[in-house]
Design a protein that fits this description.
By secondary structure, the chain is mostly helical. It is a multi-pass membrane protein.
Length: 457
């Protein structure tokens, strides 16, 4: 065995190697789990439903904005549309924005907001929620919780998430689009130039941070057995970084393809849009797999609500009463600090009742009243309030409640020798203190007073 002490410089290197090894295990496990869950198939499914849900999404979003646009100004919808198209140009390619997204937006705006109250808008909610439902299914399967929620309810749950997303987006997008302009109006003239540069610098990072918060919230609410919000932030960051990197590479690839002369004709823009949505779905599923891997390597404590549910289930399932429901049984367990025992309720020497009401059900005694032996419980409570006269005469054959804890019924075949009680003040009661055998006499006297004398056979 090598007992050579390690130098202090070796400790950081060992920690670095250990961290690198652990990180490599996380990466390999994430990729293996994503492959086992068919991440390419799920990303393709998400891309299809995102493409199919784009017109209903824009119809619901822009149509709903028409109702609240007047609260923020006369041209709120047009400003939001312009800001959104400008932001999408930094994510998608120009052909996708010019040939798919912008024409669809203009078509929705021309129809106005009357379609919001129509049957077509209600049907668009179901079609638009298909992409959200696909993401929910992928997130739940990544965490192996697909058996905790019924498939029909999960589809309805995806629809509810989509409606909540539309409501939040209707009130959030005007603030995001008009926020820089409103802030610029509030700034003094001396601070306008500096404030404008700060707003222009941090505007898109702030929008990206808002999207990360939304994706992390989706990771949390999609799970039947949720995890703490901060434990899911890593997957959202990974998904955002992966999608931005893939969009940059895809834009470069599409530019190179257009420069070389290779073209798909009229299908070029739809194919490019499908590729972008494919990588978006791939990023969301990959982030969910990463969160599941982190949870497997470093399990998080259950939330307080989950701990409360588990505790209630355990208390309800422990010693259920057949005549009471789980709520009554749980209430009985919560209100009773200790377990009720008959030996704590019956005093020594008392006759045990033939029935004792516990939980509303009488307890039948096993033995007859005459055949039942007397109780011997030295720990049972006794009445200390009764007066004790130390000068009174004591019967040595009587039971001492304070010492023995109860009376004992002797066997029938044993005869007792009656000993006459002697007053403690009598000279014959105790030997003289001056006697040399006083200690021995005290011991004999104590034994005689504590035990019944048996007549020799």
């Amino acid at each position: 065995m090598n007992d050579t002490p390690r130098s202090p410089a070796q400790a950081p290197s060992r920690r670095v190697r250990r961290a690198v090894g652990k990180g490599w295990k996380v990466v390999t496990h994430t990729l293996s789990s994503a492959w086992d869950h068919s991440i390419f198939s799920k990303a393709a499914t998400a891309a299809f439903w995102q493409t199919l849900s784009l017109p209903p999404l824009l119809l619901g979003l822009l149509g709903s904005l028409g109702y609240v646009g007047g609260w923020f100004g006369p041209d709120t919808v047009e400003i939001i549309t312009s800001k959104t198209v400008t932001f999408l140009r930094s994510v998608f390619s120009d052909s996708v924005v010019d040939q798919i997204i912008e024409p669809t937006v203009e078509d929705v705006l021309r129809r106005g907001r009357a379609d919001v109250m129509s049957l077509g808008f209600v049907l668009s909610l179901w079609a638009g929620s298909s992409a959200i439902s696909t993401f929910v299914d992928s997130i739940v399967e990544a965490h192996h919780q697909q058996d905790h929620r019924h498939p029909v309810w999960q589809r309805i749950f995806g629809l509810l998430l989509y409606v909540i997303f539309l409501i939040l987006a209707v009130f959030t997008m005007p603030l995001v689009a008009l926020g820089p302009t409103l802030i610029g109006r509030l700034l003094p003239d001396a601070w306008f130039d500096v404030g404008s540069r700060i707003i222009d610098t941090f505007y898109f990072p702030a929008v990206g941070l808002l999207l990360l918060i939304g994706l992390t919230t989706l990771y949390k609410v999609a799970l039947p057995k949720s995890l703490p919000w901060h434990r899911l932030l890593g997957g959202a960051v990974l998904a955002g970084v992966f999608f931005l990197a893939s969009s940059v590479i895809l834009r470069w690839y599409l530019t190179w393809v257009a420069a070389t002369g290779y073209t798909y004709g009229a299908l070029a823009a739809p194919i490019a849009f499908l590729l972008f949505t494919f990588f978006l779905g791939f990023a969301v599923v990959l982030g969910a797999e990463f969160n599941a891997t982190v949870q497997q390597f470093w399990p998080a404590r259950a939330t307080r609500l989950e701990q409360w549910r588990i505790w209630l289930a355990e208390q309800s399932a422990r010693d259920p009463s057949p005549d009471s429901g789980p709520v009554t049984n749980l209430t009985r367990r919560l209100t009773s600090s200790t377990t009720i025992r008959l030996s704590d309720l019956i005093r020594p020497g008392d006759r045990q009742p033939e029935s004792w009401p516990i939980d509303g059900k009488p307890v039948e005694s096993d033995a007859a009243p005459d055949d039942r032996p007397a109780l011997h419980d030295h720990t049972a409570p006794h009445d200390d309030t009764a007066p004790h006269d130390d000068t009174a005469s004591h019967d040595d054959t009587a039971s001492h409640d304070d010492e023995a804890g109860g009376s004992e019924v002797p066997p029938a075949q044993t005869e007792l020798l009656t000993v006459e009680a002697v007053s403690p003040s009598s000279p014959a009661a105790r030997p003289s203190p001056e006697s040399p055998d006083a200690a021995a006499d005290d011991e004999v006297f104590h034994q005689v007073s504590q035990s019944p004398l048996r007549k020799p056979s």
